[in-house]
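Fold this sequence, please.
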Amino acid sequence: MCRLFGFRAVNQSQVHQSLVHAENALLRQSEHHRDGWGVAYYRADSPHIVKSASTACDDDLYRRVSSLVHSRTVLAHIRKATAGEADFLNTHPFQYGRWVFAHNGKIGRFDRVRPKILAKIAPEFRANIQGETDSECIFFLILTHLSQRVQLQQKNQPLHEILEGVQSAVQELCAITGGMSRGDEAFDESTFLTFILTDGDTMVAHQGGKELHLSTYKKRCKKRQECPYWIPSCENPSRDGQVTHFMLASEPMLGENVWHPLDFGELLAVDASMRLHRVQPRSGQMCMAF
């Protein structure tokens, strides 16, 4: 299926190593995920998105964009299509206002359950669906649940409300689809809900059956002597949840970063102050584990 990369940091940073140069960078992964790419990054509190239906490893634009991105918040995606053709409108990340979303997975038998999902999406969001993917429907269903709890276009919304909204949306999707699957095999009825969502300040990740890995520290930071943001948790697990960088990837990338897999059903977030938060899965979300 698809591959995800998410990044939040206390300072403006380049991510070309993860997107292009690392041994397992998204560029290399795109050799097997050829149905489009997208990179979202934030400047002046606003998301900027560049995407294409081309294959990243064959697209000079991907290399140029990846080398120029310099931001505290980045969300990137390479696509292997399951619902909808390789088309610009079906390419991730998807955006609504401040919010950006990318998904790795699928809705089981989407054609059959699509009307039920659309019926749960608020009309003002449903009118913004432009493509054919299940992923875009998931995004706007999540926004429907968030909008019942927070002001979507305002900064510094309570993180617990955002997490409750995301969890509620996942629960509703599971009720419609019969629950999440896990593993490498994808049957027609399998549903995978691994995704990353951000508004530029908060970043939320959900492990919905497809692997997702987290890194918040390095074996040793090469800039530890000169970086004004260096704290002990840059090179060790954080004791109080405070971190200076927060990276998510479908596949761990080789280098100095230490990676840990998220658990099945785990909901993980970093808030605007760069503090980690974890939420355990609710019962009933994992009734189709393969």
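The chain has seven helices and 13 strands. The first helix runs from residue 16 to 21.
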